Automatic annotation (TrEMBL):
SUPFAM superfamilies, alphabetized: Zinc beta-ribbon (SSF57783)
Keyword rRNA processing in record: no
Species of provenance: Biomphalaria glabrata (Bloodfluke planorb)
Annotated keywords: DNA-directed RNA polymerase, Metal-binding, Nucleus, Transcription, Zinc, Zinc-finger
Name of encoding gene: 106065181
GO biological process: termination of RNA polymerase I transcription
Binding sites annotated in the UniProt record for Zn(2+) 2: C87, C90, C115, C118
Protein name as catalogued: DNA-directed RNA polymerase subunit
Length: 126
């Protein structure tokens, strides 16, 4: 820093007042500061290389909210609340259910039923 430049900055900022310098125009080699008398020669930018590195956070693993989980053998193991409901495929009387809001908020939830016997899935739009 010197007496004439109270700010230590990169080429996009005025070293006198700290303002952001405007973008250069095609018809001039001078970039004037809009707040003070400072002027920068556009040729100062010739040797400048700017590098940007974007670091993104790793996506968080989404918890599965289905009623199916894989066991060690790779077979689906069903768990969750049960209801007495006749399976339309095998006529078993117990099914597991989950609910989801698949439509707009002023409409009812969608109920997904899964037979504990044959794993048939039935849907009820309530």
């Amino acid at each position: 820093m010197s007496e004439t430049a109270p700010f230590s900055s990169n080429l996009h900022f005025c070293p006198l007042c700290g303002s952001v310098l405007p973008l250069p125009t095609l018809d001039s080699d001078i970039i004037p500061c809009s707040r003070c008398p400072f002027k920068r020669n556009i040729r100062e930018h010739d040797e400048v290389v700017e590098k940007f590195i974007l670091h993104f956070n790793a996506p968080k693993k989404k918890k599965s909210d289905t009623s199916q989980e894989m066991d060690a053998t790779g077979v689906n193991e069903f768990n969750g609340p049960t209801v007495e409901r006749i399976c339309p495929k095998c006529n078993h009387d117990t099914m597991i259910y989950t609910t989801r809001q698949t439509r707009s908020a002023d409409e009812g939830q969608t109920v997904f039923y899964t037979c504990v016997n044959c794993k048939f899935q039935d849907i009820e739009y309530s």
